[in-house]
Amino acid sequence: MKKHNYSAGPCILPQEVFEKSAQAVLNFNNSDLSLLEISHRSKDFVAVMDEVRALALELLGLEGKGYQALFLQGGASLEFLMVPYNLMKVDGKAAYLDTGTWANNAIKEAKLFGETVVVASSKEQNYNHIPTDYTIPADASYFHCTSNNTIFGTQMKSFPKTNIPVVCDMSSDIFSRSLDFTQFDLIYAGAQKNMGAAGATLVIVKEEILGKSGRTIPSILDYEKHIKAESMYNTPAVFAVYTCLLTLQWLKAQGGIAAIEKVNEAKANLLYTEIDRNPLFIGTADKKDRSNMNATFLLVDEKNQETFDKMWKEAGISGIAGHRSVGGYRASMYNALPLESVQVLVDVMKKLEEVVKQNEVTV
Ligand SMILES: *Cc1c(COP(=O)(O)O)cnc(C)c1O
């Protein structure tokens, strides 16, 4: 039986993506060749790259608006340094919002390039909320934020208005909700959380912000070189890129972001309602900032842990142990996770409440 997979990443993908990508490894497009043994410059693969780049922009409502989509390697973590390399002016500075571990890692890399202003941080409260009321220096080269904090279960519901370029790490909620994506000048996301196999990184960049840093950028780290080469500057992660294409095709067939957003809201509502109702559990993130992708919660009384862990494992649930820096539980409800899987988890939580009540009666 297929597990109810709550893994934070790499994570669940649509079943048809697993099936079609497996088929392509055996025989790609009826060519009697594997996807893995053909040139990335072959007609068949160039078509994959062209389509996935176009589809990414289409789904985000960014086609024809001066943006380019790239599928690079190195993960979101490489973008932590490609962003300052390409955008931070020599002798300039950059502004960062510190909302969690990943934001912090991005800040660390930016500091290697120049002055890095942390406009606000929720670190002191173990990142349980998204800071508000901060000012972004108008002379910074860009403002960087993280839309969804995968580890701490918080999500930015709105984004600050500023005249400088806005850069956003959307690794764990890309393609999960409707936003006006034109408010961002650069978006990046590792594929392995809502898009495809690990190995590819999506970068969406507004071309007009490039070429202004005054830095000499190594070719492989230069967005302009990647744009010019149509995301084929060197050999792309062919398998990962192909799985992204399949996932985005699946998403389009579901009705796009607006349709999946409704499902994601239903899943998040179902789980958070139970976390709030059930006296045995408590959510860790501020309610107003709760993530619809990663729900973090704790058992009020740790003595129930053994029973709960046994129960969810028996129910076929996988991957809800929290990140080691927060503990507790984390249920990652990415696009491909069905509502039924959330119902299974909620049922286990209710069952635990019954079991605990019965034990109290017998004691
Ligand atoms: C997982 C994650 C990263 C790290 O991604 P890699 O592709 O492993 O480098 C960065 N940012 C966020 C928000 C993440 O969830």
Automatic annotation (TrEMBL):
Catalytic activities:
4-(phosphooxy)-L-threonine + 2-oxoglutarate = (R)-3-hydroxy-2-oxo-4-phosphooxybutanoate + L-glutamate; O-phospho-L-serine + 2-oxoglutarate = 3-phosphooxypyruvate + L-glutamate
Q: Which pathway does the database say it acts in?
A: Cofactor biosynthesis; pyridoxine 5'-phosphate biosynthesis; pyridoxine 5'-phosphate from D-erythrose 4-phosphate: step 3/5; Amino-acid biosynthesis; L-serine biosynthesis; L-serine from 3-phospho-D-glycerate: step 2/3
Root EC class:
transferase
- Under the cellular component aspect of Gene Ontology, which terms does the record hold? cytoplasm
- In terms of superkingdom, the source organism counts as Bacteria
Q: What EC number is given for this enzyme?
A: 2.6.1.52
Cell compartment(s), UniProt: Cytoplasm
List-wise, which residues carry N6-(pyridoxal phosphate)lysine? K193
Keywords of the record, alphabetical order, are: Amino-acid biosynthesis, Aminotransferase, Cytoplasm, Pyridoxal phosphate, Pyridoxine biosynthesis, Serine biosynthesis, Transferase
Gene3D superfamilies recorded: Aspartate Aminotransferase, domain 1, Type I PLP-dependent aspartate aminotransferase-like (Major domain)
Could you tell me what the cofactor note in this record states?
A: Binds 1 pyridoxal phosphate per subunit.
Residues that, per the record, bind pyridoxal 5'-phosphate: A76, S77, W102, T150, D169, Q192, N234, T235
- Which Gene Ontology BP annotations are present? L-serine biosynthetic process; pyridoxine biosynthetic process
* Self-association state and partner proteins as the record states: Homodimer.
- Family, as annotated: Belongs to the class-V pyridoxal-phosphate-dependent aminotransferase family. SerC subfamily.
Q: Sorted alphabetically, which PANTHER family does this protein's record hold?
A: PHOSPHOSERINE AMINOTRANSFERASE
- Record protein name field: Phosphoserine aminotransferase
Q: Which gene encodes it?
A: serC
